[in-house]
């Protein structure tokens, strides 16, 4: 029997009172400024750091940063790497930073590199999927977005006239998806929660409208050198979605408001690392994210 979520009345969507109650139940568990901004500050020799917005929340004001490679030339294709759209997904944030620190320089001959390492800093600090208004940023990359996390990065790209050729969005699937975040979503929506099987291993989510399967395969081949690829469940699914092939599912990113659908990038993917696996550790998870980016860029550079 599933436990009742402690906020709200079963079967009734949350109103503002329940969302405020949820917000007040959150607490800061780590520091965006110590963990992330300090790393960004250490990368100024290789990148120009641009503040593209500020999130003004009751608990703190969070400056939002992108790293733009100093070798930027307008005639080169743009690579966008995003992390921390779901702030609790730690290796997404630190994988983006690690790529910027250790591998981005290997690709500036062919690409303009743009890295947004932590799109949801409040979520990072409180280890949350949502923002303080109980909105999921990774369902909010739409016109007139309800989530400022999404609106700010989309506004920056539009203002700069940046249209990526490649966009790799770094995520995790964790055990807390079933223990906390999916039950919270069902409570917020007034529906019945139906947990999915958490895949043990790395997998990819491709945009169904432009899957570029060989690109996805290149990502998976490189990641497999670092960590294991998730097997489908006994229904042939990952997170409740039919696999298209080993380690890969397709979702309609544009319709769902997913971050990987924020542009018309030809080559795009969402990575999913499983940090709770007994066969992985935090460093492996970070390296898997870096491998995903380099595997994708190696493939695209070969197509130029």
From TrEMBL:
One GO MF term attached to the UniProt entry: zinc ion binding
Q: Which PROSITE patterns match?
A: PEPTIDASE_M14 (PS52035)
Q: Name one Pfam family in it.
A: Peptidase_M14
Q: Which family does it belong to?
A: Belongs to the peptidase M14 family.
Note the SUPFAM superfamilies from the entry: Zn-dependent exopeptidases
Give the matching InterPro entries: Peptidase_M14
What is the source species?
Answer: Saliniradius amylolyticus
Q: What is this protein called?
A: Peptidase M14 domain-containing protein
CDD domains to which the protein is assigned, alphabetical = M14_REP34-like
Q: Which residues form a coiled coil?
A: none
**GO biological process annotation, one example:** proteolysis
- The portions of this protein that span the membrane are none
Domain Peptidase M14 stretches: 28-304
What is this organism's lineage? Bacteria, Pseudomonadati, Pseudomonadota, Gammaproteobacteria, Alteromonadales
């Amino acid at each position: 029997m599933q436990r009742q979520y402690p906020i709200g009345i079963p079967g009734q969507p949350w109103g503002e009172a329940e969302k405020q109650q949820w917000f007040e139940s959150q607490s800061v568990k780590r520091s965006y400024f110590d963990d992330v901004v300090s790393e960004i500050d250490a990368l100024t020799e290789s990148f120009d750091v641009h503040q593209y917005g500020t999130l003004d929340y009751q608990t703190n004001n969070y400056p939002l940063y992108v790293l733009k490679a100093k070798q930027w030339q307008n005639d080169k294709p743009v690579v966008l790497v995003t992390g921390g759209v779901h702030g609790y997904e730690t290796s997404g944030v630190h994988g983006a930073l690690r790529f910027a620190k250790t591998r981005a320089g290997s690709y500036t001959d062919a690409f303009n590199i743009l890295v947004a390492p932590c799109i949801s800093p409040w979520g990072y600090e409180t280890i949350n999927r949502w923002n303080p208004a109980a909105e999921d940023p990774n369902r909010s990359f739409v016109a007139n977005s309800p989530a400022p996390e999404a609106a700010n990065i989309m506004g920056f790209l539009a203002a700069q006239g940046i249209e990526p050729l490649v966009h790799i969005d770094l995520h995790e699937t964790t055990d807390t998806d079933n223990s906390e975040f999916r039950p919270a979503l069902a409570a917020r929506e007034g529906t019945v929660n139906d947990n999915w099987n958490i895949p043990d291993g790395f997998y990819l989510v491709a945009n169904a409208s432009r899957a570029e399967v060989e690109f996805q395969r290149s990502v998976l081949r490189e990641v497999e050198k670092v960590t294991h690829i998730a097997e489908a469940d006994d229904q042939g699914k990952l997170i409740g979605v039919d696999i298209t092939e080993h380690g890969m599912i397709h979702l309609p990113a544009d319709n769902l408001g997913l971050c990987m659908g924020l542009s018309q990038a030809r080559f795009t993917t969402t990575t999913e690392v499983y940090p709770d696996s007994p066969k992985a550790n935090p460093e492996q998870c970070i390296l898997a994210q870096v491998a995903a980016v380099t595997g994708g860029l190696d493939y695209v550079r070969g197509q130029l």
